[in-house]
Amino acid sequence: MLILGHDDVRAVLADRELDVVELVRDTYRRHDEGDTALPHSVFLRFPDSPRDRIIGLPAYVGGPQPVAGLKWISSFPGNIDRGVARASAAVVLNSLETGHPVAFIEGALISAQRTAASAALAADLLTGQARPAGVALIGCGVINFEVLRFLAALLPPFEQVVVYDHDPARAEDFAVRAAALCPKAAFTVAASATGALAAQPLISLATTAGEPHLDLSPCAPGSRVLHVSLRDLTVEAVLGAANVVDDADHVCRERTSLHLAEQATGGRDFIDASIGQLIRGRAHAPGPARTVVFSPFGLGVLDLALAAWVRTQALRQGVGTTVTGFITGNDSGQAAAAAPSHTNEGANP
């Protein structure tokens, strides 16, 4: 059993943003081709603390190096006020030969980076006809920090970055730290979410909102909205925009804004395309005059694909801790199952 802690994962992922984006692109392609197995995520909620949850995301991704396993991720928004991370996660990878667990990996950074890579990839696909000169980030936490990192790696340099958080001090601190990601950009802290929505044609929403609280009327026509946190937009905002999702069956659940829109209309005709369809050319991005919302539920196949890639790199680099005797059986056989089958670092696991 290979165990990778947070520092191990961070070391493996350092400066690999473009590799992660391509891995996410390939995984979305495989998912659209039907080369995955993706049961619905399981939400564990608590009667006395409805904002808190722990989610289990089992998944399988096919290909030359297929992978299966589970991400187990908690979201406790009250942690922000305690000065600790809102989300924590672990990923278990299983051998497809024996079913034995072969890796236990700290998953919060994997989850944040696959989310950010997904958002950046969507921004790239949706802005090809009109590249934005700036971006607005609503919610100044870990996720939007990673979103900005990946946007900066994938898109042309931004001239303007506008940030907003309900805690002004948090927004100010975010702007100072994020300046290193976009050294040529001017950073501005917006006084309101409405002001941030109006400020730039590319917007990323990554908040802890549990109910819709924003409409898109302040946005300029043709804005691209990365609706990462899924519950910010009103039903009217969703229905008034073109909508791209990662998977309609997954995103129309658990009272997301799109789930509420489905309940209000009795169907999903308001969903225009999936990101997998855009990647494979089975659908085209809406024109630059239409406001587009990208709502990714966050598919476990992305977590598993990235975790397997991290494990492969860690084995090559000698990173992490190997524990023997974790399960009954032949540890040498388990070690053989854990070894990478080739040395092509760009390949999808």
From TrEMBL:
Any single GO CC term annotated in Swiss-Prot or TrEMBL for this entry: cytoplasm
Domain of life from the UniProt record: Bacteria
Example of a GO biological process term: siderophore biosynthetic process
Gene3D superfamilies: NAD(P)-binding Rossmann-like Domain, ornithine cyclodeaminase, domain 1
Pfam families cross-referenced by the UniProt entry: OCD_Mu_crystall
GO MF term list: oxidoreductase activity, acting on the CH-NH2 group of donors, NAD or NADP as acceptor
Name used for this protein in its record: 2,3-diaminopropionate biosynthesis protein SbnB
Taxonomic placement: Bacteria, Bacillati, Actinomycetota, Actinomycetes, Micromonosporales
The encoding gene: ocd
